[in-house]
Amino acid sequence: MRIRTVLIWFVVAGLLAAAVAASRSGGPGAANPTEPSASAPWTIPLDPARVDRLSLATDGAERFAAERLATGVDRWSLAWNTGAGSWTADPERVRAAIRLLASTPVTPSPDETETLTPVATVTLRDADGRSIDIGFSDRASGGQVPVVVDVRNEQDIAERRVVGRLPASTFDAFVRTPWTAWRSTPLFDAVTANARSVEIVAGPHAVRLQRGARGWAITRPYALEADAEEVERTLNAIASLQAARFVDTAPPDNATGLDTPIASIGVETDAGIRSLDLGAGTDGQGNTIFARITTPTATSIVHIDRESVAKLTAVPEAYARRTPLGISGADIARVRFMATTGRARFEARRNAGDWVIDGIPATPDQRDAINRLVTVLTLEPAARVAAVDNSDQTNTPLGEARLLTEEGLPLAALTLAMGDELRLVLSRPLDGERSIEWTCVSENAKGVALWAGAIASQLSP
């Protein structure tokens, strides 16, 4: 073999050996695959949509924690000082905090590994149990602070560590600024949607509203079906109440008026009762007042806009059903009219869409009068609803209308009376001393008053 050919083969073999060595070592100047380039910014590998908890720890103790709630859409709770306080977190602020960490690049500086001592650690956990620890140093320099980032797997084993720097503003946002600034300002959050009862107390008035199978009803100070629209308006007004400011170091109760609240609002759900006590004004202007919000897990003192609670009332009659009967007119198969003596009787029965009196079809005037009565009882809102003492009756009594089913089962009984200007006053007892009155002023009501007055005079002894 020629010497030239042998030399060529030696050169080729050397090149091949160098190529193999380079491939195994990553090539000249290749970066460690577990560390970012010493100069290239590195982004913390987290998906904001999957983070379900983030916390801040200092001196070995957890100071703040925001955690996604299992119920609702994107709802968060905020706790501080290892359970000393808790509140609903504003989801927009929590999302903004997570996005800040996910989008702010870390500038690697591995030379600080030996000297970096974290004074605070922010931990983020995702839905799979993976977590990221960001340890902050407080040695700010050039608008940046040193950090050490540990990426951990589901078994809490560190898979990667990056030492670098983040803007000092990130340290200020997560360590210097208390996370209590993330608290949600709505005082009743979403509890009104699942409310089982509502209680409002103000001065001498108090009312309790209870949700039942047939809707809402007044249960205190008396039992009566409630007006669904009025209850809904009240729930919306309660849901709109917001804290103008949280007072973390509150004055004593005798300085805020909360030792003797001027009013209280309570909403009960399956999770318990959330209540709001209203106190004195926060300043001489009187635009805001002190309030104490109490939940099953915490109590907070806040400032609240005075006008926002002025929409609420504790007067029970404000929530009373506006129509005397909460049933359909089609449910009434018999109308029985009793004179004030209780001895004479007039009764009409439905028959194929018409009315029959004593087996004889009702006259057009009688039919119209009965239909007007049914309309007033079941469809037309009264002009006024009030609870009155039985001793204060000043209207002219006309008798009693008894409503029954086809089988003769009682549906309701209402006393009829006539007030000034042909006002029709319908009432029924609340207790031994009071009655609930509906004052009706429509044309149908006036017609019923005239008809009932004529029937009463005919039946008088």
Which structural class do the helices and strands define? alpha+beta
Output the number of helix runs: 8
Give the % helix. Answer: 10-25%
Q: Overall 3D geometry?
A: elongated
As laid out across the biggest beta sheet, the strand order is 4-3-2-1-6-7-8-9-5
Q: Cα distance, first to last residue?
A: 149 Å
Bin the strand percentage.
35-45%
| Sheet with most strands | 9 strands, antiparallel
What would you call the quaternary organization?
single chain
Characterization of the model:
- With 461 residues, this protein is of the alpha+beta class.
- Helices cover 21% and strands 38% of the residues.
- The protein is built from eight helices and 27 strands.
- It has helices spanning 3-25, 91-103, 168-176, 228-239, 253-256, 306-309, 364-378, 443-459, and strands spanning 51-58, 61-68, 76-80, 85-89, 107-108, 120-126, 131-136, 144-152, 158-167, 197-202, 205-212, 215-220, 224-225, 243-247, 263-269, 272-281, 288-294, 299-305, 334-338, 345-351, 354-357, 360-361, 384-389, 396-404, 410-418, 424-429, 434-440.
- The strands form three sheets. A nine-stranded antiparallel β-sheet has the order 4-3-2-1-6-7-8-9-5. A nine-stranded antiparallel β-sheet has the order 13-12-11-10-15-16-17-18-14.
- Helix 7 packs across helix 8 (443-459).
- The radius of gyration is 38 Å and the shape is elongated.
- The model is unreliable at 4-13 and 15-34 (pLDDT under 50).
